[in-house]
Amino acid sequence: MILHTLHAMSPSASFQDCLRTAQPEDTIVLLGDGVYNALAGSHAADLLAANPVRVVALDSDAAAAGLQGKLGDTPVVSMDDFVALSEHYPRHLAWY
What we know:
Helices cover about 35% and strands about 20% of the residues. By secondary structure, the chain is α/β, with parallel strands linked by helices. The longest helix has 10 residues, at about 80-90.
């Protein structure tokens, strides 16, 4: 079980590597510029949705990017939720 933090935007190699590496029991948290990957109707959002891994976006980063209400089906999590996820997963892998 791995908590992936994805800061990179599609079509970067880091984005592709993250999707290829993530397993169904993992979670990907979109942070920083990574929240743009969840923009509803985008190719990146379609790729994320087609992957069996859980994907969430950090609410404060989505708000900073002006994407509130534009992330489609991608749930947003608070900083407290993110901390809880980091405590739950024994390993963390950051993608930039």
